[in-house]
Amino acid sequence: MSTAVSKRSVAAASAQGQSRPRPPSPKVPPYLGLAFLALVAFGLFCWTWEGDAVLFFPLGDVVLWAPRDPLIGLIIMVMALLICFKLRISPMGAFGGLALIAITYWAGSNIHFIDRIAEVPGRLTGGNTRQQLLGYFNPDWSYLFLHNVAGTSRPIWGEWLITLCMAVVATIIGCFIGLLLAMLASPVSSLNKGTSQTIKAINSVVRSIPDVAWALLFAAFIGGTAYGLGALAAVLALIMFNIGIVAKLLSESIDAIQPGPLEAADAAGANLIQRDRVAVLPAVMPSFISYSLYVFELNIRASAALGVVGVAGIGGELSRQIGRMSQGYENVGAILWALVFVVLLVDLLSLWIRRKLL
Amino acid sequence: MIKFENVDVVYPNGYKGLSDISLEINQGEFVAIIGLSGAGKSTLIRAVNGLVPYTNGTLTVGETVVDPKNKSKLRKLRSKVGMIFQQFNNVGRISVLNNVLIGRSAFTPTWRSLIGWYGSQDKEVAFQSLERVGIVEKAYNRAAALSGGQQQRVAIARVLAQDPEVILADEPVASLDPPTARKVLGDLRTIQRDLGITCVVNMHHLDLARDYADRIIGMRNGEVVFDGPTQEATDSVIAEVYQRPLSADEIRQARGDGRLGEHIENPTEADLTQAVPAVEDGIERKDTV
Amino acid sequence: MSHGYKVSAALVGALLLASGGFLLTYAPAAESSDVFSRMMWGLAIGAGAFSVALTIYALAYVGTRKQRTREQQRVASGQSRGGYTPDGLDMRPVKPVKFWYNMALIMIGVLFVSSAAGTGMTLSALLEMPARVWDFGLQMVGGVAQVPDEEARGNWSSAFDAMLESVAIAWIGTIVGALFSLPCGILAARNMTPLATYIPMRFILSVIRAVPEIVFAVAIFIPLLGVGPADRGGAMAGAFALGISSIGTLSKLISESIEGVDQGPLEASRAAGASHIQVIRWAVLPQVLPEVIAIWLYRFEVNIRASAILGALGAGGIGRLISPPNGLFGQRPYDWEAIGITLFVIIAITMVVDQTSGFVRHRVIHGKTMRQKKRKPGDLAADEPEPPRSVAV
User: Fold this and answer.
1) How do B223-229 and B30-35 pair as beta strands?
2) What pLDDT sits at residue C171?
């Protein structure tokens, strides 16, 4: 049956001489432009091959591109362009592909991808990598529960509590401030366009500084990394980190709320604060709770990690143990396993709360 | 009470919403505005409380001139002018009582609404308005959990809590099934008459307008093309407003013959799903207690 | 159990806890550990606050009961309010007792107080902070604003180098995550796979998600790939740690978006006799691809920030440049000009990357001709806003 159908249709088409629409083949000039771009990239690759610095405005010298074996890069790029052309992909899509390859090529050679991968088998068979890995999988639990932090009377498990406490405090304060900022940042609930733009700009600056940098900054601002001060620095850093996340996500939720109740509140003569309180806040409350829980999970991970730069909590102990790695990988292993365990517990807890509430 | 003098509304995108409207609506009148979609009915209503700023002319409510630029004056005006919407515009996640208390916003200090601690006076007013629309026993239910008719009653209660001089209603019953629509509109009419409130209502349903309104205003392309008492709004006049002859079906309904199988101009989802007139919620309530 | 009993039982418990915590603060055991003593302080304060809050709650509860009785009497006696003769229906409902809701609020307060006590923060340090912030801030701004001399030029170039290395790490991490996450996401979508693959896949993914990046970095990739700057393998370790932990989140998000696809085309292609792979290729992928790309790009933004913390552990990138002992913050006195320059570079590059990736995401999801539809203000109530398609976190 089906052969009959296809036969007939072929015959009919040829008989009537109809020209069927063919998929549009991409124009050549844009592709030539793309090929030119590939050549430019190749030129840059070549220029910076042996670590010659590209001058980067008068501020300083920066090696922007330092890929290995530029010829391979060129071949890959040209091949990709040819494939795109054959598959009749639009120039824009081909440009995306080209950019993907060029960036990946640059990034890969920037971090010495191939060299490192080639080294892995050697490391696995010899040296202390093996020992290290074995140590991680045989954690020393007694260290975690019975020992004190070296030179103090604080038990290791107490450090865990401090970490948790930091996360709780930072979550509560950070989410609250984040809520206020989100209200100011969304044009729906803000005073005016100018305020909302300003707050958004400030928020994106806050967000672009990583949490480690915040912790280090605050430790310096407070005047030392002595323990006790360290917890304060970590909490402040986490608060900034939380503000960034909550304000961004929540202001997007506020942008998307139904305009109806807002209009009703306006029509009832409510002022801005009243309107935000009665019409905006209830509408975004579920997302706020869910973001807060999300942020709490992030905080647990981050507060463990932040200790690495010398603030309080389990991270501090972790970095100390890493520092004297040669004495035994079992201690680090115990902390890491416990970290996985605690994070898993917190995830489960927040999943349970989410189910209960939402 | 409400006075339009050569009022124009031009939207920022250049669309002309109202052109040269001159109207006077008296104290205590129940005015229905009819017209096709896009004729400027919503714009007319929203201009009154400044939700849509008018661009030219003078618009007076009571003694005050509506001034879309002056926010605090506008708030003061809005506290006297209640508004009911097609989509009810209740905040779904808070209780009915809190929804009604939104209507008290203009009379409540900001800090009180901020922590949600309303004075007993405000609460009393809210309860009384809920009693008036007959859903006081739902006061602590979540607003989103109510049926459409009940939600619109909550919206009316919210407006009543404002103690308004004017009620504006933008398609108040377009999202309701026909029997409920009649019931809600009837309630609104009774309350309006009892309290002597001026009422301006947008309507799609011609028959409803004829049954409940004192006066009908017909609009087309942002202009008033008919204005007169309900008795004068004959079929031919209405056909002129809509710029097409009314179908026999529509005329029959307009005379009030076709109560149940009413024609709905823009059937909403609620209309389609609730086509069978179920037990109306007011009646249902009596039964359950 | 009625609310009265619940409240009083909780009250007694909280009081016992408070006094117990208070006593234990002075117990000999507490001397051996300041964490313990702080915890006990926290416990005592928390439980005290809890009992006070409970008392208030109980009083309010008693008040509501009175109100309810009054209301019942009023209706029974037929007393009118506001010109109505009340019947049973007009009985005003009494504010419901939201026991668990109130408990949850109280608990959050208690948790906050006791955690604040538990961290052992010395808040007095905050008093001196503003002056320092001002002083250091001025130095940082001065560092950025100065005409670069030889030293500043060195700072600028090392900051750019390190930040670009971070971007490279994040990019490779995202590529690794993206390569693995698409198949994993398809395997973890309920409408694509049988239960026998779905359950183990979900389990593996949630295990990956539960493991923080620093664990991957420290425990697996730093030993495997090396530690330190890029040429000694630290950057690779960071990239792989980010990549592996990206797999968890990315696959989950992708599987969710696959579960949300329109079922119509799937049925149509199944009805046309397409095999499972063909269904995925021609009915599922075209639907989800824009969203998947958006998710990948979003993860790239997240990874740039995350790479900083890995750097602090020796896994390359900007974190290595700033964190002690060898970084900028490890030197005393602090070189605030250099720190200012570095922070400036971090902010600038992160924002540029965010903007670019945000633009591409928008373009991919909405297409070239996307224009904000001008809403006619008059019809505001009539048209519902489109539900947001959230690019989840």
Assistant:
1) unpaired
2) 93
CB burial of residue C24 (10 Å; 0-12, 13-18, 19+): middle
**Which of helix, strand or coil describes residue B170?**
coil
Mutate: best of A212, A222, A253, partner C, most C CBs <10 A: A212
**Looking at the partner chain, which of A56, A223, A252 has a beta carbon nearest the beta carbon of C128?**
A223
Smallest Cβ–Cβ distance between C214 and the set A165, A235, A305 belongs to: A305
Q: Which of A299-308, A320-329, C42-51, C258-267 has the highest mean pLDDT?
A: C258-267
- Chain A residue numbers with beta carbons less than 8 Å from the beta carbon of B158 are 264, 268
C36 with A302: Cβ contact below 8 A:
no
List, edge to edge, every strand of the sheet that includes B16-25: B16-25, B2-10, B56-61, B64-65
Contact of A357 with chain B, judged by CB distance below 8 Å, is answered with: no
Q: How far apart are CA B99 and CA B92, in angstroms?
A: 9
A286 touches chain B (CB under 8 A): yes
Q: For CATH 1.10.3720.10, list the domain ranges present in chain A.
A: 141-357
Superfamily of A141-357 according to CATH: MetI-like (1.10.3720.10)
Is-contact B286 C89, C-beta < 8 A? yes
- The answer to whether A319 contacts C313, with C-beta atoms less than 8 Å apart, is yes
* Rounded Cα distance, A353 and C205, in Å: 21
- What is the pLDDT, as a whole number, of residue C348? 92
Query: Nearest-CA distance from B245 to chain A in Å?
Result: 35
What is the three-class DSSP state of A213?
helix
The winner for highest mean pLDDT among A218-227, B264-273, C6-15 is C6-15
Residue C364, classed as helix, strand or coil, is helix
Are A307 and A315 in contact, with CB atoms under 8 Å apart? yes
Whole-prediction pTM:
0.82
Token pair 């892995």 is at which residue? A120
Of residues A224 and A237, the one with the higher pLDDT is A237
* Neighboring chain A residues of B93 at a CB cutoff of 8 Å: 282-283, 285-286
Which one of A180, A262, A266, A281 makes the best mutation probe of the B interface by having the most chain B beta carbons within 10 Å? A266
Give yes or no for residue C146 having a pLDDT over 90. Answer: no
What pLDDT shows up at residue C266? 85
Contact C92 B52 (CB under 8 A): no
Mutate to test the interface with B, among A278, A287, A357 (most CBs of B within 10 A): A278
Report which of B98, B101, B104, B85 is spatially closest to residue B162, judged by C-alpha positions. B104
What ipTM goes with this model? 0.85
